Amino acid sequence: MKFARSYKMLILPKRLIDILSESMSLKEAYTQYKNRNLNYALKLLDELITQDPDLKEAYSLKGKILFELGKLQEAYENFQKAEDKIGMAKVLIAQGLYRDALTYLDDNSKESSKLRGLIYLKLENYEKALDETKTIEDEDPLIYKIRGISELKLGRYNDAIIDLSFAIEKYPTDAELYFYRALAQRGLGNYKEAESDLEMAINLNPYYAEVYFSLGELKESRGLLQEAVDMYSKTININPLYRSAYVRRAKSLMKLGREDEAYADIRKANELDSS
Q1: pLDDT tens sequence across 155-214
Q2: CA angle 203, 122, 245 (to 5 degrees)
Q3: Are 106 and 131 in contact, with CB atoms under 8 Å apart?
């Protein structure tokens, strides 16, 4: 005797269907974001937000994408809707509103501590910057960059070299890391290592005025006056308002017996000082 198979259709509540649909669409938006298809990810997120204007995860991801696209005000508005304090703080930091950003970083999370450390570094409060990051156990190169620069500014050159070297290992294309490690090496009298780091920084960023200036100082200290003049000239070409470069170049030119050029640099330095 044969029996016909019977099937029961699984009927899901509409809200559950909507939730599943939102979850799948949000996952797809994250995938497109990770694949750097940012405009398509934004399109998916806008569709999600139209369906559910209270979906905080969508606003948060949208804010993150807009932040990466440099649309800071729009990013901030979306982070606000998501109640994403970290996101709002990042926008304010990017705008240079450091003290305003601190008001959103009121917990003890790793991310908040890292951002507070970055803010204190920007505010030149190096002790606080170091205090915020010294206990964070993470391989994020930014943490070691904050530590390293803070230690450099506090004269702890050996510690600075250790932390900056770790950051370089994780992020070897950041010219600033080599620049600050060079300053720490110079602080210890390791001029050869300092020069090597400065050369690497220039290779990574040929328009880094401070690096040429520091390299000029190293050349000058070794009596390589023409090479020092060349470095100071490159500094000035990149940043014509770099007063210290005119002063240092004038000193080197004077030692080379090129007094007319030296006096021209002194006049320019005085103009910049009074402006």
Answers
A1: 999 999 999 999 999 999 999 999 999 999 999 999 999 999 999 999 999 999 999 999
A2: 50
A3: no
Four-point Cα dihedral 253, 254, 258, 263, nearest 10: 90
The CA–CA distances, whole Å, from 253 to 21, 155, 211 equal 72, 31, 20
| CA–CA gap between residue 72 and residue 88 (Å, rounded) | 10
Neighbours of 142 (CB within 10 A): 17
* Neighbour tally for 237: CB within 10 Å: 13
Q: For the chain, list the domains and their CATH numbers.
A: 23-106 (1.25.40.10), 107-203 (1.25.40.10), 207-275 (1.25.40.10)
Cα angle 107, 113, 118 (rounded to 5 degrees) comes to 135
CB-CB neighbours of 45 under 10 Å = 28
Name the pTM for this structure: 0.84
d(CA 128, CA 155): 15
Start-end of H helices in the chain: 14-34, 38-51, 56-68, 72-82, 85-94, 98-102, 110-122, 126-133, 141-153, 157-170, 175-187, 191-204, 209-221, 225-238, 243-255, 259-274
CA 201, 204, 208, 213 torsion-angle sign: positive
Q: Pick from 222, 223, 243: which is nearest to 232 by CA?
A: 243
Q: Look-up: residue for tokens 């004269």? A: 155
79-82 LR contacts (CB < 8 Å, sep 24+): 81/56, 82/56, 82/57, 82/58
Tokens of 265: 């640099």
